[in-house]
Design brief:
It is a single chain. The chain has 361 residues and is mostly helical. It folds into 3 domains: 75 residues, Methane Monooxygenase Hydroxylase, Chain G, domain 1 (Up-down Bundle); 55 residues, no CATH class; 203 residues, no CATH class. The protein is 68% helix and 3% strand. The protein contains 13 helices and 4 strands. It has a two-stranded antiparallel ribbon with strand order 1-2. The radius of gyration is 25 Å and the shape is globular. The termini are far apart. The mean pLDDT is 88. Bound molecules: zinc ion (2 copies). The site of one zinc ion has 5 residues, from helix 7.
């Protein structure tokens, strides 16, 4: 059955509206006004409940329903920017003051207070505290693990991943291939984690043999700071993966693990070149001119120490971007510090892991 196309008309002025139009061309009335009001109500309720991420999901949906360049568009972008700061702020507060809000932690504190009653009380309290902490750690890790495995439930991710493993395995053996793909996967899941925190719709990772992997955004990152943090989250998770591989190498003395750590560190460093759609380019979006020069100095310093050619490339490309002023007028010292820390740590790791892997990368 084919439904006949009935052209919509503007309830205010009667002008015929073409499909996909967001506002009436004659009087400016928003086509999705009712839906927008419902979204705003839900967004405000989520924010009042303290769920900034849920509010961000709503505002991003609203952004798709108002015309680009309109006053409403700018207002919604401001909301998205403010909520992004809230998400980051909550995380900072959570790391600074762990467990204070949870009832289990309150119980642990009460147990600690009870410990002043005597040595047996103190031992019991200590035991309770350890058990509770263990429970937190396990719950925390299970939550993370569930998230990390999320991509495996998507057929596209899984099949493209297996194809990549097969291609790499045919060249370098399956152990190295699996290690490399897991490193890439964790890097991508870093992006996915940041995107879900900021309420941005995106695909799960897709792998392209010989080129790596990517996550496709389905909504724009309008705020430069959120864009930068999302970009740098990939190398942060990638660094963790490379460090774990290096620790395993240290314990087992198996050169394969050093090769995985070294390649992982190198690939994450490559992603920090501030050019094209690479993560480093997103990281640079939130930096002022002065902050970009600091990044140049860090990359040049790391090159002086390790003699890794890639660092000279990073320093040179970063310098080219530092000559131009940032049109968005932002200055993000946390993002700059994160970028510099990543360049420094990944350089050192690539350097020491390379020394441990006689077969090179
Ligand atoms: Zn109208
Ligand atoms: Zn990335």
């Amino acid at each position: 059955m084919i439904t006949p196309f009935a052209p919509a008309t503007c309830p205010t002025c009667g002008t015929e509206l073409a499909p996909r139009l967001l506002a009436c061309p004659a009087c400016g009335r928003l086509v999705h006004g009712d839906e927008l009001r419902a979204i705003v109500t839900r967004a405000e309720a989520a924010r009042a409940a303290g769920d900034a991420t849920a509010a961000l999901v709503e505002w991003r949906r609203a952004l798709e329903l108002v015309p680009d360049g309109s006053a409403q568009h700018q207002t919604i972008r401001d909301h998205i920017q403010a909520l992004g700061r809230e998400v980051d702020g909550v995380r900072a507060a959570a790391t600074a003051k762990p467990n204070t809000a949870s009832p289990l932690a309150e119980r642990a504190q009460r147990a600690e207070k009870a410990s002043r009653r005597g040595p047996i009380g103190a031992i019991l309290a200590a035991l309770v505290a350890v058990l509770l902490k263990g429970k937190f750690a396990i719950l925390f890790l299970l939550g993370k693990l569930k998230f990390v495995l999320l991509g495996f439930t998507k057929l596209g991710t899984l099949s493209s991943m297996l194809l990549s493993v097969w291609v790499y395995a045919s060249m370098w053996g399956w152990k190295y291939a699996v290690g490399l793909i897991v490193s890439l996967y964790l890097h991508e899941m870093g992006h996915v984690a940041a995107l879900s925190r900021y309420g941005v719709r995106a695909t799960t990772p897709m792998f392209v043999p010989m080129l790596g992997a990517y996550v496709r955004l389905q909504q724009p990152l309008t705020d430069p700071v959120q864009d930068a943090r999302t970009g740098l989250a990939g190398p942060v998770w990638g660094l963790v993966a490379a460090v774990v591989a290096y620790v395993v190498f240290h314990v087992t003395r198996e050169p394969l693990w050093a090769a995985i750590a070294g390649t992982g560190a190198f690939l994450n460093l490559f992603n920090l070149v501030p050019i094209w759609a690479l993560d480093g380019s997103r990281g640079f979006r939130s930096m002022s001119r002065m902050q970009r020069w600091i990044a140049v100095l860090v990359a040049a310093g790391a090159f002086a120490v390790t003699r890794e050619g890639l660092l000279a490339v990073i320093a040179a490309v970063a310098a080219l971007r530092a000559f131009r002023t940032n049109p968005e007028g932002v200055s993000d010292s946390t993002g700059t510090a994160l970028y510099c820390w990543l360049v420094a740590t990944l350089s050192v790791l690539a350097f020491v892991a390379h020394a441990g892997a006689p077969h090179g990368r």
